[in-house]
Specification:
Layout: E1 15-16, E2 23-24, E3 28-29, H1 30-39, E4 44-50, E5 54-57, E6 60-63, E7 67-73
Antiparallel strand pairs: 1-3, 2-5, 4-7, 5-6
The chain binds zinc ion.
Length: about 80
């Protein structure tokens, strides 16, 4: 199951909730995805990111299996002059 999120320039939230209702402490950290891209000046990138949360199963837990597909386009300001 894929979850697509679209954000406009500076309105990127740092975190997106996991779609799994049973998921505990799940979600996706967008800053973690974007930060290396911005450092490397990458303009377009598609990829997958796994949820870091877990589900409670009886007395134990198991890792959340949710994945999100992301597609980012970053526009960098040209330095003028
Ligand atoms: Zn999750």
């Amino acid at each position: 199951m894929n979850t697509d999120h679209f954000f406009i320039h500076d309105r990127v939230p740092s975190r997106v909730e996991c779609g799994n209702r049973e998921c505990v402490r799940g979600g996706y950290n967008l800053i973690e995805i974007l930060d290396p891209l911005i450092r490397a000046r990458i303009e377009e990138k598609e990829g997958h990111v796994a949820c870091r949360g877990y589900e409670k199963i009886g007395v134990g837990t198991r890792s959340c299996v949710m994945m999100a597909t992301y597609k980012v386009k970053i526009k960098y300001k040209q330095s003028e002059g």
